[in-house]
Amino acid sequence: MMALAGGLIALILGIIGIVVWWGYFLQLLAAGVPIMLVLGGALATYLGIEEIKDKQASDSFDTDTDDLKSEVASLKEEIKGLKDTKIKETKTEEIKIKETKAEETKPAAKEEKK
User: Whole-prediction pTM value?
Assistant: First the structure.
């Protein structure tokens, strides 16, 4: 509520000030507009240069992504090969364990027959 009251008071005083000091207000505009144009133009130029730099940087980044994609694909293939090798080794170990257990049970089966 206080902000509304303060805003209304500032608005009324501002309008009264422009009416009373109209000549000074025009001089301020005459001095302020060129300064604003110079500062705005400098800012727009700076932002344009930064945009060009960003675009060039993103273009060079796109070419790097192709190299990275091919490297990732080769690493995926390598991991797949390692997984296949690990699976084969695990199956071989399981077969050996089963054979060892079968050999251990065979003598016991022969003794039972006797």
Answer: 0.42
